[in-house]
Amino acid sequence: MTYYVDCLEGECWWGGAVAQGMEMPIAKGGAGYELNGTINRTDNQYNALFVSNRGRYIYVENGCILNFDGNGLITISEAKGEVDISAGHGTLKEAYRAAAAKHLYCGKAVPEEMVLSPQYSTWVEMLRGIDRQKVEAYAESIVGGGLPAGVLILDDGWMSDYGDWTFAAEKFPDPKKMTEKLHGMGFKVVLWVCPFVNESAPVYGSLAAEGALVRSRTGEVAVRRWWSGTSAVLDMSSPAAGKWLSGVLDGLMEKYGIDGFKFDAGDPQYYDSDDKTYGGVSPNGQSKLWAQFASRYEYAELRACVGMGGYPIVQRLADKNSSWTGKKGILSLIPNMLQAGLSGYPYCCPDMVGGGQEADFGSGKGHDDEFMARSCQCAALMPMMQFSYAVWNRSSEPVRRIVKNCVELRGRYGGYLRGLLRESGRTRDPLMRHMEYEFPGQGMERVNDQFMLGDKLLVAPVLYKGTREREIVLPRGRWKYMPTGEVLDGGRTVRASAPLDVLPYFEKM
After folding, report:
1. Would you say the pTM of this structure is higher than 0.85?
2. Tens of pLDDT along 260-284?
3. For a FRET experiment, which of 34, 121, 280, 430 has its CA 20 to 30 Å from that of 476?
4. d(C-alpha 40, C-alpha 456), whole Å
5. Residue 335 region, left (φ>0) first, then alpha (ψ -120 to 50), else beta?
6. Under a CB-based contact definition with an 8 Å cutoff, are residues 150 and 113 in contact?
7. Where are the chain's structural domains?
8. Which positions ≥6 away from 478 have C-beta within 8 Å?
9. Nearest to 436 by CA among 339, 345, 349, 310
10. Architecture label for domain 113-197+236-420
């Protein structure tokens, strides 16, 4: 069945694919737009929830094709489940809340440590050359650099093989002692995992025999190409796969004191529609099952998932480039984070400060101190802040001070963040909010380069190289410009001075 929705005058829509925030909102008179969510082929989260500033929402269970013709007609086709088109909710916020109450998971929020303290990943700092000595030195550099301990993610490379989730013995002698040391320093310890299994992994044969691996339409174990080669992939609809993986991960927690896991991959693109699986599930279904498995763990991070709106899981933006431009550069952070919130993912992380693309880091790669500073400022008052590249001891002294100041600024709002987190656990309100969400009817629909943290803080990071001031759209009311203490009347656009060491932000009076 096909559904048609005519856009109202002045109506703008958001939602669907987190990676497409820069294309939002869609509105009459704008560009055409199509999103095929029957198999999510973006590199980030998808949820078929679409919300409008005129108080309407569209929700499709398990995905659909959404087409917008640019002239005001939205077409919903190939719906994979229930379709709910609802109106009469007044504003963007109320439409979202109505959809959340009916269609999003509601319960506890993510652990406070994931939000209040920075997260640290070994990824671009070490790439796959990770070992115990480097991890401990990295942790010591964090604390020694004046930054607080937080969640420390041991990324790809800690394990023996893809599918062999044991510590690589030559790299990690006595991993329990390492974990105890990190815990003693105040860190939570999280390990990177993925659903891929190499044929060289000792468990490959038994997993294949037990029906725990996806099979192709020919009945052979499917071999899929991904960013680290070719591998088999777990069939998460198979009880054998879940039983095996939970046994392995629970064992790591019990034996070494590991606190949680970074669940990478799980993208629908690594499955085919004609795969033979235990549960006969679709590629989107496999992605959702991978995410549901992750939700068993208190400390869990995902980058890709389908239909997991509201779940208490950290949802990270896909790896970003160390770039001032492009759809994967710094300009994408705010739009994609806003899109995440409006798609039902309130606990989102803006990737790593300075970017997380492997190609941008490693031996001989230089880094722009100005970019690192502005990237750090951009993340400072977002729902989460994650470091990898050790900018606190690899940059110039002025930039080191900026990094430390950003982390201290975040710490000053710890109580405020804690309150937002508790509120979101009840309402699933985004922590980071579109201007239109908080200030309806003030012409904020297309403001995509500033945001609200809750209903109190307006944050407007500098996003262009060489810029030392920026325009900020102030909603009606009284606003205090925190870098100087100046109080301004809103309802207008103002120009704020923003030297390299200044993050422009306001408190609502």
Report:
1. yes
2. 999 999 999 999 999 999 999 999 9
3. 430
4. 35
5. alpha
6. yes
7. 1-103, 113-197+236-420
8. 487, 488, 489, 490, 508, 509
9. 339
10. Alpha-Beta Barrel (3.20)
